[in-house]
Write a structure and sequence with these properties.
- The chain is an all-alpha fold.
- 68% of the residues lie in helices and 0% in strands.
- The chain is built from 14 helices and no strands.
- The longest helix has 37 residues.
- The radius of gyration is 30 Å and the shape is flat.
- The N terminus is likely disordered.
């Protein structure tokens, strides 16, 4: 039977609870808690291994290293439990959900959830966990945050347009429908107004996103240094040339700029001090516009998702529902959609999906309520 050494207060890696021997008396609550930790550690290790299957290179190695670390934590609880480990128990619902998503999707959403899970580790307040395990969980959160950030950056262009396009469609068309209905016009007019708002808004969003992303990419392209210094350097007057100004303008220190000029002028046979050379003319190995996205993909995402959001408020009118009932159903459908879009934003940002969803709901319903009141006022004036 395995047994821990007696607790040593001078050892920072040994927790007070580690003085429990594997066969010594322990409360039922302790055993139940340790068994749950054991199940969760096994589940988290599987999550990281499942995610690693969909990655390659450095990301795969990082995920497998995280799984190995969770295995060390598993060994700690096994040692503490000894024969009391019993049959494997189910992991928590959160860990089971993470495992399901990791096996079937393996996307940035799973990493964002894993980041939140690591940030909620109970080890910091549990005397049975060692300080090293507490530190591990804190570091794991930062590691997963870094991996999730890579995915967020890849989604930053088109996904941003998609999520916020859908949200704009939901809020703007619900506000339009509410305002028109409150003014007293017929349901057919409300429906046609909603359809017009859908088309006008989707086209406007698509065109605006295309221009925005294209302009941003053009601005980024204009800032990239050219290779003109390679061709012009041999022809410059050694005593009076502006090559030094080129490198100073790019942000080099004077020492580094002078060193670079000497290289370009052929006064140095080799790069004798690599720390002084920024090598701005070397071709980039990665698309510098990756985080911006392409103009066409952003425009298409913005158009489609605005339209998909804007169609929700007019669904009851499309099925013949009229009057107050149509407005109630419309508001309910939009409310559900706002909770979902807000939750997605919260999930990807590493914050609470519930709080972000409720924030989106409050803002959307607030805008709709204001336009409804304005529609009532406008209808009363016209009448």
């Amino acid at each position: 039977m395995s047994q821990h050494a007696p607790f040593d207060p001078t050892n920072p890696h040994q927790a007070p609870g580690a003085s429990h021997a594997a066969g010594s008396p322990a409360s039922a609550a302790d055993i139940n808690r340790w068994r749950q930790y054991l199940a969760d550690e096994r589940a988290e290790a599987r999550v990281y291994r499942d995610l690693a299957q969909n990655r390659d290179g450095e990301e795969r190695d990082i995920l497998l290293a995280l799984a190995e670390a969770e295995g060390r934590h598993e060994a700690h609880w096994l040692q503490l439990l000894g024969e009391r480990a019993g049959r494997p128990r189910p992991a928590s619902l959160r860990s089971q959900l993470l495992g399901f998503l990791a096996r079937h999707f393996g996307s940035v959403f799973v990493l964002a959830l894993a980041q939140r899970a690591e940030s909620r580790s109970p080890y910091a307040s549990d005397p049975s966990a060692t300080p090293a395990m507490v530190a591990d969980e804190q570091i794991h959160e930062e590691v997963v945050r870094g991996l999730a950030t890579r995915g967020r950056n890849r989604l930053a262009g088109s996904f941003r347009a998609a999520v916020f396009g859908a949200n704009d469609g939901l809020v703007s068309n619900l506000s339009l429908v509410m305002g028109m209905a409150a003014s007293g016009v017929g349901s057919s007019v409300v429906l046609f107004s909603g359809v017009a708002g859908l088309l006008a808004g989707a086209l406007s969003m698509g065109a605006g996103e295309f221009i925005s992303v294209r302009s941003q990419r053009e601005l980024l392209a204009a800032t990239r240094p050219t290779q003109i210094t390679l061709a012009a350097a041999p022809l410059l007057d050694i005593e009076h040339n502006e090559l030094l100004l080129v490198y100073l303008a790019r942000g080099m220190s004077r020492e580094a700029a002078e060193h670079r000029v000497a290289e370009r002028m052929g006064l140095l046979d080799c790069d004798c001090d690599p720390s002084l050379s920024l090598r701005p003319e070397l071709p980039e190995t990665k698309d510098q516009h990756e985080a911006v996205g392409t103009a066409w993909s952003a425009a298409a995402s913005s158009f489609c998702f605005f339209a998909s959001g804007a169609i929700v408020p007019i669904v009851p009118f499309l099925f013949g529902v009229t009057g107050i009932a149509a407005l109630v159903v419309s508001a309910a459908l939009v409310g559900i959609a706002l909770l979902l879009t807000g939750g997605v934003v919260g999930l990807l940002s590493g914050t609470s999906p519930a709080s972000r969803g409720l924030r989106q709901l409050a803002i959307g319903m607030g805008a709709a309520a204001v336009t409804y009141v304005l529609g009532l006022a406008f209808g009363a004036v016209v009448a």
